[in-house]
Amino acid sequence: MEEKSMSDIKVKVKEKDLNTIKEICKSFDNKPGELINVLHKTQEHFGYLPAEVQEVVAQELNVSVAKVYGVVTFYSFFTMIPKGKYPISICTGTACYVRGADNVLQEFKRQLDIEVGETTEDGKFSLSCLRCVGACGLAPVVLVGEKTYGRISPEGVKEILEEYKEL
Amino acid sequence: MHLLVCGGTGCRAAASDSIVESLKQELENKGLQDDVQVIMTGCFGFCEKGPIVKVSPDNTFYVQVKPEDVTEIVEEHLVKGRQVERLLYKDPEKKEIVADSKNMDFYKKQIRISLRNCGFIDPENLDEYIARDGYMALGKCLTEMKPADVINEIKESGLRGRGGGGFPTGLKWEIASKNDADQKYVVCNADEGDPGAFMDRSILEGDPHAVLEAMAICGYSMGATKGLIYIRAEYPLAIKRLKIAIEQAREYGLLGKNIFGTDFEFDIELRYGAGAFVCGEETSLIHSMEGERGEPTIKPPYPAEKGYLGKPTNVNNVETYANIPVIINKGASWFNKIGTEKSKGTKVFALAGKINNVGLIEVPMGTTLREVIFEIGGGIKDGKKFKAVQTGGPSGGCLTEEHLDTPIDFDNLLAAGSMMGSGGMIVMDEDDCMVSVAKFYLDFTVEESCGKCSPCRIGNKRLYELLDRITQGKGEMEDLQRLRNMSNVIKDTSLCGLGQTSPNPILSTLDNFYDEYVAHVTEKKCFASQCKDLMTYSVVEENCVGCTACARVCPVGAISGEKKEIHYINPEICIKCGACEERCKFDAIIVK
User: Fold this and answer.
1) What pLDDT, on the 0 to 100 scale, is given for residue A130?
2) What H or E segment, with its residue span, contains residue B409?
3) Same domain, B182 and B320
4) Cβ B202–A134 below 8 Å, yes or no?
């Protein structure tokens, strides 16, 4: 197999995006210790962290791609799969759990026909679980994008989805 | 006159920001904008009935306010001076209206030290913090006290770390102060990861300056000039308010060089977590701040010797810091009169689950669980029976009826088989299956184990599999012993606090609810009807009137039957969602 050095990795990232990543890295002085901050900013920009993007970050901070990948996969906040247009997150904190969050989750899975961590084929919805948003008074809680829905029952799932299907 | 509107995450999720907007608009319409000030504060704690609007100075406490109620509040209360009765809090037991928050059972037993400013001040306005003695403690330390005096004061106060471990804070500071280095760091652990715990977030959202001030005091005492707050990226509001607070403190010269005209300098930066529970462990947290995977390392060396970037580092949690300015202002001897012999002061708890008053409370150490759950918490939801209370999150355990009169402090909870933890308190009722609860926590631990040491990585997975088997009705009696043995091995051999405590939810439920485990194994029964594999739904023929409601609501078409005839549930198709049972008005569907 042909050996590749870090400098000649072919990156399938558009020129413009490439520059954005470089700028982000530069804003943190290309310090390897700022890796997590760099990844936060990069994910904010792209919505997710595909392998190609990680390669650029590795190159810029002068660390191995393995290290970047290691960090990306370690933290649940970072994702390598693009989220849907309307990302749905179900709180699975204990307060929501004892008030029936699991049934709500199952209903979302059934209606969208996807598993947690997946995105629907039309790219509209993605499904994820998160740990306690701290709105325990409204348990169980569902977030669609930034919008919070409280006291959701499995019967309410359809209603929430309808709201976005038309959009 | 002031209108205080709760701006905590819970109330904002229920549209409290549009309440603020409408109030301002309405006041302008009435020409009252100069007489009445609308302030968005931090969390009031009474999340159950949010959004909350409080009128000051008369203390009228409006609950579950909607944007459309605003006109009435302004017209009635502010213009005509009459309280809007329908929005006042009604005591569910006594059926009486309680207008003044001071008289509510929820607040009566509370002593608010670390939450002192939450719900009282605008967290985005430094002047309001200063008006409530803010930065006075820092001034006192810098101008009247030597670093060693500060440490002694904290030691004497008896304050112990509120993040879970309960290590004496003063001692921690002393160790860090004695290690010489060209640079030292003060770190605030705001990576609140316990599911169902939100006290740190509420403090940061409601009173960010309290933490900044305390960190500066800590920096002065140990000789550090840099502070770092490690905060979850999932807390956007807390981050925003911290950023504003840091900016304002710098403008006022309360952070930066020559603070209070002395040669002391101190500045604070934010570092973001990225969703890893293990980062609450201090060595993991430090690695994460350095841009690495958040894996723990063996202690010693402790962070106080070798921490962030190899330099002496003091790590405390948000709530611990929030206590510091009060201790300095009022003195250690004031603080150590509150609480029990070995646990001084107060503790904040996030009360959640099957309880009437979900919310954030702060009580003196030594308050009993009964007082917290039944007096402050207002008892169990829907008149059900209390079954257990879980404290300490995934590291803690489930306590029962017989523990209700135990005074809460670090040592008592530990002796009872649970722990203080960061302060999550989840109440469970008769409908909760304790085997499933243990499984829920193990699921969490398996997900969050960093994978570095094998007892935690592999052991917890095996524990989870055993529990899963039991909840599916495939367990054997030997499994219960296996659970216990393996739990003890994992506790003894794991590298960090996560693995050393992760089997606690199993051990405590095995101790307190052994019969329930046995029923799952021998009778294949789940008393709480939670384990789906052990349940069957069927129609009670005598009660069924053939209304077809159940068949229509069934999402999988498992129910058949003609109109006005007895229906039948096909167990092969039934997914046990319970929708039919909920819909049936004739009690004709039972779960066994």
Assistant:
1) 84
2) none
3) yes
4) yes
